[in-house]
Amino acid sequence: MATHPSATTNVHTTKKKKKAKVKWSNLYTFSCLRPPPPLNQSDFGHPGFSRVVFCNNPGAHKTKPYKYPINEVSTTKYNVITFLPKSLFEQFRRVANLYFLLVAVLSVTSLAPFTPLSLIAPLVFVVGISMLKEGVEDWHRFLQDLEVNSRKVKVHIGNGSFVDRSWKVLRVGDVVKVNKNEYFPCDLLLLSSSYEDGVCYVETMNLDGETNLKIKRCLECTLGFDEEVKFDKFEAKIRCEDPNSSLYTFVANLEFGDKDKDVDVDDNKLVSSYPLSPSQLLLRDSKLQNTDYVYGVAVFTGVDTKVVRNSMKSPSKRSRVEKKMDHVIYVLFFMLLLISLITSIGSARYTDKKQTAKEWWYLQLLEDTDGSFDPDKPLISGFLQFLRALILYGYLIPISLYVSIEVVKFLQAMLINNDLHMFDETSGKSVEARTSNLNEELGQVEMILSDKTGTLTCNQMEFRKCSIEGISYGGDVNKIVRAASQRMNIDIESYRFNLDTEDSTPRDSIEMHEICHDEINEVKNSVLDDAKSMRDVGSSSIKGFNFRDERLMNKMWVHGSNVWDMMMFFRVMALCHTGIPVENGEEIGSHKPKYEAESPEEVTFLIAAQEFGFQFYKRTQSSMFVKEIDSSTMEVEREYKLLNLLEFSSSRKRMSVIVRDEVGQIFLFCKGADNIIFDRLGDSGRTYQHATTIHLANYAEDGLRTMVFAYRKVKDLEYEEWSSTFAKAKATIGPEREELLENVSEIIEKDLVLLGAVAVDDKLQDGVAECIDKLAQAGLKIWLLTGDKKETAVNIGFACSLLRHDMKQFHLSLSREAESKNQLKAMKDEILDQIEASYQVTINEKTKDDPFALVVDGKALEIALRNDIRDQFLQLAVNCSSVICCRVSPKQKALITRLVKKFTGKMTLAIGDGANDVGMIQAADIGVGISGMEGMQAVMASDFSMPQFRFLERLLIVHGHWCYKRISKMILYFVYKNIVFGLTLFYYELYSKFSGDVLYDGWYMLMFNLFLTSLPVISLGVLEQDVSSDICLQFPALYQQGQKGILFSWKRIFGWMGNGILTSVVIFILNVNILSSSAFREGGEVIDISHLGVITYTVVIWTLNCQIALIITHFTWIQHIFIWGSILCWYIFLLFYGALPPVYSNREYKLLVEAVGPAPMYWIVTLLVVVVSLLPYFIYMVIQRSFYPLDDHVIQEMKYGRKVVVDDEMWLKEEESSRKPTHIGFSARVDGKILYLKDQLYKKRMFIIKSISNSPIRRSITINPLENRD
Amino acid sequence: MDQKNKKSKKPTYSKFSQQELPAWKPILTPGWVITSFITIGALFIPAGLLALAASDSVVEIVDRYDEGCIPDAYSQKAESYIQNPNEKKTCVRTLRVPKKMVAPIFVYYQLENFYQNHRRFVKSKSDKQLRDANAQDDTHSCFPEDHTADNKPIVPCGLIAWSLFNDTYKLSARGKAIDIDKKGIAWKSDKEAKFGSDVYPKNFQKGALIGGGKLDERIPLSEQEDLIVWMRTAALPTFRKLYGKINTDLDAHETITAEVENNYNTYKFGGRKKLVLSTTTWIGGKNDFLGIAYISVGGLCLFMAINFILLYVFRPRRLGDPSYLSWNRQPLV
Question: How much is the ipTM here?
Fold first, then answer.
């Protein structure tokens, strides 16, 4: 503290003043005083621009024309009143439910073949559960709304006093005060801030996903209102556009009179009007940062705010399996109609007077009451029988399937939520399935569309390497080289072994060593480094600085050769930026300040400069202060006069500062993209260019973001001259101003001297590279969609192994002239040409192993996605191993997702973290939100949320795979189950003259789906595993079963339907034949309806439960209890039911105890029929297993087979080869590197052989024998 | 750090939630396949043989008499014969005992093409009325046999009771009558719980249409075993119902004279009537189908077992043979 008195006193005396001294507006040369958007004053008051806001007078907004919605935001679907009708309507939009409703209505008429209860209860249950789920989900939304709506903000209540009010009561016209790190409660007009010149910093991550801070600035006229008490007398009127969803426009006027003349406020003539622009509008859900407080007036509230207007109602998504299930239901419906028709025709035929009616005297059909057997009206009775049949065979339509699926998916989601492997310790969050509808969809994903910032990267920059004077510092070998070399080592050993046995010279291996020598040494070094760094971590882990090199650290560089250039390099770092130092809040007394700057990279440079001994510690309006290390390692404080700041822009790709040092020399420090700087180097400044270029290439391949530093000494005279032209250019107002400024800057930024380059790492999140690797091996394609500029996107592409150096990259972008002309036709032609050229290349070189990558620019993408060339574009994109889209807007993200989904027909998954990804998340089949960061928009819109990208691997490859299998098996079994049961009812009709009599008791029917067959299916749907999770991860190829959709193909569906039909026939035929007329007991008793019913039903229950035991491959105690328990449950039920007095049990009174139980026939029939009905499936299963096994079958056998076949080697080999060959991902790059090294080796050997064979000695040796022969 | 942990929603570990429950993962190995096929074969064939033997030991005499009991004069108009109350309905049938029949011998009547399981028929009764003397008015499900013309409830009401089978049989051998025991032919539970011992037939068969048999109004329903048996509606259109039991053995080759009172009208709907005398064993009456089914299934399984044994001998597949994995097979495709 004592050593830096000036800085610290500043901090302690007046915090506000310290910051206020910097007039921010002056720092930003290019952006200040931009002319407001021209607008026609007469627009106000007309449609579209009719809004009037009475500032500080919310009372004026109580009456009609100015009455605007309050700030309460609701995202719920229902309220207390609308819940019932609305959700009921939703429920009965499902065809199946509508059918069941019809059945339930009919069931109260005399047509019902069984008790109404058994028909109405399931419907009520199904609809009830679904509605309950809806209700609970809506309740959660309600709670979330409640939380947001009751956040507190300080509101002016008159007399200059502010009190805390909840967000929801905020009204238009309220003056509010928002403090640092708080969210804006509604769209506010900025009046003043803690800074003197009324700027404030806003983070708009929730709106557009960008994490850099945006500057907002108030009008000069409201600057004065920067204290609470002053608002007593504040009064103004805003006329503005009507609420709309455009985030980047705001057209308005502020009518405001001088505060001192409050007498005249009402007089319009003294009130002046100021135009407002978007830079005065603070949008709801963005966050105030780096500013202590702001005052603002609420302009748009609640549903009028831009962010709310931008939010879409999240579409309800249904999984493909479920959609297909609908078709299965239609098939079943068809079956139902068919057998109902058969029944009704049969019944009518038997009832018809002409045919037979008169003869069935014991039926007294002429006296029929309900008309369903009226011999005179066969048509009517046929129709009534048809209705009855529809109800009777309703068991074909698995109503309980919907319930079971809901239950199963809920439980699956629970298991996903509770997976400890997907829990992130640092954020304390785990993966969460926000909707359970899409669990099985996770197992079929083919394409991942990923956001970059916050999803792949941590949005945290680290200083990694630098190259000064052509020497690279920060010798951290990249992982790929390391892995490749390690594998090469193994190769070398085996290679040598082979050579020895083949009696070859060991020379080759030595060469190999030579080639790999450097790499291996580096590996060794890096391992040492790692060990060292581990030790260092405790002592100095500086955020943003991940750099280790003895030569530069601890002032060691001073002993280097060319200290002058070194110092200049560090000066560029410390001076060429827009940052400011702020007091280090966390560690008081620490001598190291924190920095705040426009971009995170600059902060990184400042931190690095500080570590190297150039601490930038103070900035005033005109000067920058740096503590430097002298060549004698002494610390000196130096002041640099800041003469000019030539700002960074996307077209310039560089920034410069012009400073005058204490001696009076003028320097221009410049940093920028390599090609830009290289173009502007002077002849004498190119000393290190070659070395630097090589380093830059290396850095770039590691995925580092690079920047080149240069400087120039400017002569006083030249500067004076230039300065005046610059000032002139700065003073111009109009659209040409920017171009003018650029041109003027161009003049001075020349003849630069190259100093070196720096490399910054946009830190990837943990395990991203590995995760991408695994996903690629599982056959997933990954597209990167980012709003960043192309260079950054490409960097990250390299860092996460989506790109590699040997890839052929196609860049789609618009040339500058085409862009400036802005003619659609020209642009389209240009893009089309590019696409076709690239496409030709992919076709021609498909056989080659070179992978392709496509990098598309946002503008170009917009053109490429137009209807007429979209197909070509997508075709090209599909041919490329990786696709990177940069500079894409949130809307484009959604559009791409939608198109990819539509045109490739592939299952897409979109993953992102920011509000700008919401569209994409909603458009994709599955949307995943990263929940690690702040801002919940993405998570709110997503179907799954996860704290880290890397959990995607487990979520898809393990849980997705399982869920897909589970749900598929479950639905197929359900279809089978209901066919078996439903058809036995139908066959009985053939024996009862199609009269609609039911073989089973009503209670059996009710119990069927409720207790006797439901639990095993649910256990199948929740607990089934083909292989354990680690094997899923080891064999990514298993995931392709889902992508190919083989488990729920029509072949399988019809197979199971066929099996169901076969089983039902077997059950019925055998039962009827065995239990025909003769006695079934020793006591001579014969079968009646209830006996046949109970025996058939027993067989059905046994068969269905044994069948599921054949399907299940993973039996925990739960499955055992459920399966065998269900069978036991049937007998227990029968016992209890039979024990009830006949009033309740009717025909079933004492059925088991008295009639069927003691009869051996009952038991042996059960055994026989169950075995016979399972036999077809069993034989099918055996044949499939033996001759056409699926991957999971073989792997199961390999893993769990009785004989231990898992010798490690084979296991590993298969594990290896199960990976899909891929061009992206970490391991693919390692392979690429090995190939490259081998290639180098080969070339070297060829070279040696050539040189030997060409050498005169060799020639003489080889020629001589020939001569001798001659 | 501690605070952080408290806040975090770390899932608690349990074997269930981590899906790590110990599990039995059966694999269908050739061994399993062959074992299960052989087991089924080995179990089913003897069982089938036993069942066949049992069925074989049953002695059954079936005599169809509906056609034979029509006098020649009425051969073309059987209906008018059966409906003519003045014609004598008695007819004499002669039965031969093929093998010795050991008591108890069960006497059945068999009806064919008679749909006792027709929806309209099955529903046409009142359980409550049968059970409870106070519920004689509970006849709403019995239409048209619910009330007499003068609006008195019929007990037992409904079509089932109304169409009570009323043929009677008298058996005699060598001139000596064989006693048919009509007691104990109904289910015990029916007599005790479903048919009231204080419910007496009332107004039965007094309507315009006479259906089938009449009932003695002095005997409570619980003792009317013929009615009870009849009211247990049969499951299939061909059915037998117990008529009575013979408690004496019948010798082989004995000739039995059956005096049939042919009252029941099956001619109208083309039904058939048969008189059946049968013994039983543990599987009940004669039932060859069961044994045959068991033997065929067992045979099939043995056949499959042999096939698979041969297959595994000639084309063995190593368990977990990696060459069957899709990625290893792909080049072939």
Answer: 0.94
